[in-house]
Amino acid sequence: MIDKNIFREYDIRGTYNVNLNEDVSYTIGRAFGSYIQNMNEYTCLVGHDNRLSSNDINASLISGILSTGVNVIDLGLITTPMLYYARIYENIYPSIMITASHNPKDDNGFKMSFNNVSNAKGEEIYAFRDFLFKGNFKDGIGNLYKKDIKEDYFNLFKNTLHFGDRRLKVVIDCGNGVTSLYAKELYSMFNIDLISICDVSDGHFPSHHPDPVVEENLVMLKEKVKEVNADIGISFDGDGDRAGFVDELGNTLPSDHYAVIMIRELLKNNENKNILYDVKCSKIVNEEIVKQNGIPHEYRTGASYMMSKVIDDNMLFGIEYSGHIYFNNSFPPITSGFYAGLKLLEVMSKTNLKASELLGNVNKYYSTKEIKMKFNDNIKFEIINKVKEYALSKNYDVLLIDGVKVKFNDGWALIRCSNTGPNITLRFEANTMDRLEEIKNEFINLLNSYKM
Q: Does 188 participate in catalysis according to the annotation?
């Protein structure tokens, strides 16, 4: 009686005690252990975040895996990037991270890998779902081991970051997520004056929701940056794989603007010129890649897809508007909010420029934040097909790698299904504010007409 809707494009995700509980977790563990044995894998990694349900789900999941004869290395309470790194460090790729990332506190879920360094996605998850529902599970007695990956993970940062002489004042906001357990110790290893807020681990997320892309979740960080005259503010999401940024004036530095700073830095001294960005990013990203003699690649949204693309096509750098950021030179190609933040501090430590001055010489565009419109999971893909038919009927220039992206000479519109909730997400950009409103109204009115 497991709800099929918890199997999503990027992961498994549901609401605790609604469609996800200990029994469901045990069954998923049974299926996972059986599934990877068919790939000749007999050991896996498991980690979990600090959500209120994560401990119980962790115990049930591990019990299910062990019952199939697969050995489990329990990494304990960690960030998602720590699990990603453990795959590489231990050379063990089957893994499950228990987290719902930035979803509401009552949600939880599983990010899985079967036999490679990147997460399962799309058809891989649906194939696992179909295997689970057949119920042909193996029986055995696996062994449980414990592993603390923190020291090895921290050494990775020490060995790959090299700060300059400028000592920065930095505010970090952990949002009471699992990063609260690691951020202060890690950031204090570097030449910075550190102030931390919302840094007590609490799965109720009492200070604010831990999603650094949403403006209202940055209010406390902005206020603190201005109060202490900090050089920069950095915010992490609930499981630590994303970061958000605030400059010294208390203004948000969006991820696609952060990308411009990194593109300039990375393309200076690397022979690899391939840069990946997702469909949500501003046009300034493509323009900067070309300006710096790089090779731009536009791709679909989603950490599972982006990380695979960075690895498979050997991209130097990848950026998602949502704050997933991938480096693929001295640091392994895993998305880490901690590393993204420290990499920016490394760049700033070698210049006297303020954070607000790092982005000079880019074109000015007007854009919306990500807009979410509620559509039931059962119909949202049908709605996207209708948008596609509409755009094609108008002879618009259409990109279909992720939903529908309509490109105009003076702007663009993106309409795509959310893969983490019952929403259609939209983002718009244009050369002028009037044109932005015109494009936005066209497609929002179109979607509203489908609700009637």
A: no
State how far the alpha carbon of 175 is from the alpha carbons of 18, 146, 208, in Å.
25, 27, 6
Global pTM exceeds 0.90: yes
Spatial separation of the C-alpha atoms in residues 360 and 366, rounded to whole Å: 16
pLDDT along the chain (452 residues), means of 10: 92 96 98 98 98 98 98 98 97 97 92 92 96 97 98 97 98 97 98 97 95 94 98 97 98 97 95 97 98 97 93 96 94 95 98 94 94 89 96 97 97 91 92 98 96 74
CA gap 225, 112 in Å, rounded: 37
CA distance 257 to 337: 16
Residues 6+ positions from 309 with CB-CB distance below 8 Å: 276, 297, 299, 315, 318
- Please, is 194 exposed, middle or buried when counting C-beta atoms within 10 Å of its C-beta (0-12, 13-18, 19+)? middle
Among 25, 34, 67, 101, the one annotated catalytic: 101
DSSP lists the bridge partners of residue 179 as: none
Half-sphere exposure of 112 (CA within 13 A, CB side): 28
Instruction: Provide the pLDDT for residue 330.
Output: 85
Q: Express the helix, strand and coil content of the chain in percent, nearest 5 each.
A: 35, 25, 40
Q: How many residues does the chain have?
A: 452
pLDDT at 452: 64
- Give the integer Cα–Cα distance in Å for 48 and 153: 16
Indicate the helix (H) or strand (E) that contains 136. none
Q: CA-CA distance, 313 to 300, in Å (whole number)? A: 14
Task: Write down the number of H helices and E strands in the chain.
Answer: 13, 21
Alpha-carbon Rg of the chain, whole angstroms?
22
Q: What are the backbone dihedrals phi and psi of residue 146, each rounded to the nearest 5 degrees, phi first?
A: -115, 145
Residue with tokens 């105009």: 408
- Pairwise CA distance, residues 113 & 375, whole Å: 29
* Angstrom distance (rounded) from CA 249 to CA 218: 13
Strand order from edge to edge, sheet including 144-146: 12-15, 107-113, 95-98, 43-48, 71-77, 144-146
H-state helical runs in 161-218: 183-187
DSSP 358-398: TT-S----EE---EEEE--TTTHHHHHHHHHHHHHHTT-EE
